[in-house]
Design goal:
7-stranded parallel β-sheet; Rossmann fold; 321 residues; globular; alpha/beta
Length: 321
């Protein structure tokens, strides 16, 4: 029996290029359905470690237009592209508020481009908790590049670092974004700074200021963020932006930083999955277990503090008979 024949039917369909099966599997991941687990487990060895490029930055800087330009550039060079756009969640349905983003332009007959809008579902960091697993599935499906667009909510965008191999922070002139970037912590996560809408007045000043900021934080042996200027109107600077991304990807390989980054991301992912599972099981037990309800009652009555209660639970008290 061949290795592929032992795969779940959905996994085999994804490897065959079945986009409907791919979309259904991502939905199962989003919904936390157990049926997604064997698909993810079986396809994990088929992943290749392709570039996952995070596009982060404040609202209104033109991230979606920039992604359109990147798609056109990559497709003209024969590369296949998958886009995951993380949108805010509806407080009513839990689904994506912006839905299937019509501002991401793509030809319906182009099998080399796959687009998926995902709801953040309250996940911090501007990205959904399932985004990393979705990107991994897209890797196994054979795409050359995955682009991840974050919600664009300032400080919480920094979690893209736990997903992307290269993080691009997009800014525009005249919005004070340089200072806001420092406040939001985006400066620390940027591998590439992109001054978009560079056809506007002040773009040269904004780029120069960012160049100066980057120079102040340069350390020998570490990657120095590249600052590029782009405009999606002309368009200009798109080749330079992709070249900067590719330069960072090459640095990851030549410096050995890719392995260290991958270990860090997997550590964060595994700890997060354990925390999520244990938390869910514990929440269910606190509702249904009489002894655990008694412990919770003590905390509510302020006869026991939450940290002590958590320590008792961690030590296995009270234990099941």
């Amino acid at each position: 029996m061949s290795g592929s024949s032992r795969l779940p039917p959905a996994a085999r369909a994804i490897l065959r290029g079945d986009r409907r099966a791919l979309a259904r599997s991502i939905t199962q991941i989003e919904n936390g359905e157990p049926s997604a687990e064997p698909i993810l487990a079986s396809l994990y060895p088929r992943t290749r470690g392709i570039p996952v490029v995070g596009i982060a930055g404040p609202l209104g800087v033109g991230k979606s237009s920039l992604i359109n330009a990147l798609i056109a550039r990559l497709r003209s060079h024969g590369k296949t592209v998958a886009v995951v756009a993380v949108d805010p969640s509806s407080p009513f349905s839990g689904g994506s508020v912006l839905g299937d983003r019509i501002r991401i332009e793509r030809r319906p007959d182009d099998e080399g481009v796959f687009f998926r809008s995902m709801a953040s579902r309250g996940a911090s960091g501007g990205v959904a908790s399932a985004t990393l697993e979705a990107a991994r599935l897209l890797d196994a499906a054979g795409f050359d590049v995955v682009l991840v667009e974050t919600v664009g909510s300032g400080q919480v965008d920094v979690a893209i670092r736990e997903i992307a191999t290269t993080s691009v922070v997009v800014l525009v002139p005249h919005l004070g974004d340089e200072v806001q970037t420092l406040k939001a912590g985006l400066f620390e996560i940027a591998d590439v700074f992109c001054v978009n809408k560079s056809d506007l007045p002040g773009a040269d000043t904004a780029k120069r200021d960012l160049d100066d900021l980057v120079a102040q934080g340069t350390h020998e042996g570490r990657w120095t963020p590249v600052v590029v200027a782009t405009s999606t109107i002309a368009p200009t600077g798109i080749d330079a932006l992709w070249e900067a991304i590719e330069s960072h990807e090459r640095f990851l390989d030549s410096s050995g930083a890719r392995t260290a980054s991958e270990r860090h991301r997997l550590t964060v992912e595994i700890v997060g999955l354990v925390r999520e599972r244990v938390g869910r099981e514990l929440a269910e037990r606190l509702e249904g277990d009489r002894e655990l309800r008694t412990l919770l009652d003590q905390v509510v009555a302020r006869s026991l503090d939450p940290r002590t209660a958590a320590r008792k639970l961690h030590l296995g008290f009270p234990r099941d008979e």
